[in-house]
Amino acid sequence: MNDEEQRLAEIESISAIFPDLLEDVTEKQLIFRFDHDLSITITLPDDYPSTSPPLFLLSGPYLSREQKEDLHNKLNDAYIDNIGFPVIFNWISIIQDFIQDLPPPPEPAVSTRDDLEYVASKEEIDDMNIQHGEVFTDRKSAFQAHLAAVRSKEDVDRVMQILKSNSKIARATHNITAYRYSVTMENGKVIHHHDCEDDGEHGASSKMLELMDRMKADNVMVVVTRWYGGIHLGPDRFRHINNLTRQILCDNNYGPKKT
C-alpha cells in the first residue's frame, strides 16, 4: 500500500479501537482526549508513514513540565523504534499506560453554582464594564461566559487582565476567547480585526468566532471560562460553549433575542 492507503487504513482501525478517546478525525488529523484532561493532536504528513513522522501536540494542564517531557520522549522513542510503519496505535497505548501511573488529578477549583457566585467580584477595577453570564454546570464541569465591548487589541488585552485578576478565573482549566472589532482609518477605509484563542480546548474558539460572525456581532469580545470537573463531556462541551456565547451576546443586544 502507498502512504495514503496506509494512513486511511490506520485511521479506520484507530477509530474502531479507540472510539471513546477519538474526539475529532479527518484524513490528515486526529485529536484524542484522555483522563486527567490530557489531549493530543496528531497531524499526518503526506509522506507518513514511509518517510516523515506524524506531528503531535500535547495538552495537559495537570501535568508538570517533567511529566510532559517524559511523555514527549516516550512518543518520540516509539516512533524511532517503528520508522516506516504506522505508529498511532503505539502512541495511544503509551499515553494510556502513562496516565495509569499518574496520581489522581486535583479536585476542580469549583464545581457548583454556589462556589462560583463570587467569580464576578473583580479584584482589579473593571474599567471595561465586563458582563458576566450565569454559571452552567454539566457533570461537574462548570462554564461561565463573559462579554465586553472592545475596539482595539489593547482593549482585548485589558479585558483578559481584568478577568484573570480574579483567582478563580485565572485558575480555570480553559479561558476560551473570541473577538471582533473594526477600525476606521483616516482615509475612510474600514479594517476588520478578529481572532480567537482555544487555551487548550482545541477547536472551541473558532466555533465561537464563527457564531459571532453569523450574528454580525462586532466590536465585542466573549470569553468562556471552563473549570474541568474530571468527567469527559465529549462534543457536548462545544455545544455548551457555543450556547453560552450566543446567550451572552443576545442578552447584551448583539444578536436577536430568543422568543
TrEMBL record:
<dbReference type="InterPro" id="IPR001498">
    <property type="entry name" value="Impact_N"/>
</dbReference>
<dbReference type="GO" id="GO:0140469">
    <property type="term" value="P:GCN2-mediated signaling"/>
</dbReference>
<dbReference type="GO" id="GO:0005737">
    <property type="term" value="C:cytoplasm"/>
</dbReference>
<feature type="domain" description="RWD">
    <location>
        <begin position="9"/>
        <end position="102"/>
    </location>
</feature>
<dbReference type="Pfam" id="PF01205">
    <property type="entry name" value="Impact_N"/>
</dbReference>
<keyword id="KW-0963">Cytoplasm</keyword>
<comment type="similarity">
    <text>Belongs to the IMPACT family.</text>
</comment>
<dbReference type="InterPro" id="IPR036956">
    <property type="entry name" value="Impact_N_sf"/>
</dbReference>
<dbReference type="GO" id="GO:0006446">
    <property type="term" value="P:regulation of translational initiation"/>
</dbReference>
<dbReference type="InterPro" id="IPR016135">
    <property type="entry name" value="UBQ-conjugating_enzyme/RWD"/>
</dbReference>
<dbReference type="InterPro" id="IPR006575">
    <property type="entry name" value="RWD_dom"/>
</dbReference>
<keyword id="KW-0346">Stress response</keyword>
<keyword id="KW-0678">Repressor</keyword>
<protein>
    <recommendedName>
        <fullName>RWD domain-containing protein</fullName>
    </recommendedName>
</protein>
<dbReference type="InterPro" id="IPR023582">
    <property type="entry name" value="Impact"/>
</dbReference>
<dbReference type="Pfam" id="PF05773">
    <property type="entry name" value="RWD"/>
</dbReference>
<keyword id="KW-0810">Translation regulation</keyword>
<dbReference type="InterPro" id="IPR020568">
    <property type="entry name" value="Ribosomal_Su5_D2-typ_SF"/>
</dbReference>
